[in-house]
Amino acid sequence: MNLNGKVALITGGGQGIGSAIAQRFVADGARICITGRSQAKLDKIAGSLPSGSATTCAGDVSKYEDAGRMVEATVNFGGRVDVLVNNAGIDPGGSVVDLDPGLWREVIEINLTGPFLLMKAAIPSMIKNGGGSIINIASLGGLRCLPGMPAYASSKAGLIMLTQQVALDYGPYKVRSNVVCPGGTRTAMIEHALGGLKETLNTDVEGVFKIVSSGVPLRRFAAPEEITGICSYLASDDSAFMTGSVLLIDGGSAVVDVSGATLTNAGVKWGV
After folding, report:
1. Domains of the chain
2. Whether residue 170 lies in the annotated active site
3. Model pTM greater than 0.90?
4. Which of 161, 76, 87 is nearest to 118 (CA)?
5. Model confidence pLDDT, tens digit, residues 90-104
6. Are 156 and 139 in contact (CB under 8 A)?
7. Span between the terminal Cα atoms of the chain, in Å
8. What does DSSP say about strands 175-182 and 132-137: parallel, antiparallel, or unpaired?
9. Given 152, 170, 173, 233, the catalytic residue
10. 140-181: pLDDT as tens digits
11. Do the Cβ atoms of 135 and 234 come closer than 8 Å?
């Protein structure tokens, strides 16, 4: 993609999918500001990029004053905000009865209120400069339920609707808003979440991922870099007529009948 001259703000840019997007955007010609709560992680990513291509702004996306600072830092660095990528998120589990109300609020504040605050802070600047592209990173879990993950799934489902609401309200101002929904992706966050299954399944980490992805048509999880191409496309002028779209990057997971897949993997032959 051609992102020459584009200036992008990427939240959660210090690790995982966010850092992969940061590297892809710079490779495609953009200048970027990456944000997150760990200055050390931000510095590591920024330091790995070409000189002058990136700046950082540590902060908490759930705080409006921090969201404002992030937008301000981006404008000070690049003169404007052409692209906003809302990627920061957390994924603690716990069913409705078991989940602490404070943890529920934290998930909603970071995963849903955070993007709202960043958009609230960035959209006026985008309008002033003739438009922009917002790319929200939700999840397949915003379209399909995950066992014991009501806060995460609800926050991502809400982000999908918020994305489309912004597309409707700000399309007349040439501000586009689209949402990317990754399926299972090999990040440190998900490796930590699945690490506890090693003993239960009597295997190592690679074995866990092989078992968990056995029902996915492509039979594997994505690498973070595989989520970046669609984001670069959405940031580019090639997607100028795309807004309000919900884009699945899930290896085909959403098309699967989970009961049928389980039976097939167990050796059942269909249509006999």
Report:
1. 7-185+224-254 (3.40.50.720)
2. no
3. yes
4. 87
5. 988 899 999 999 999
6. yes
7. 48
8. parallel
9. 152
10. 999 999 889 999 999 999 999 999 999 999 999 999 999 999
11. yes
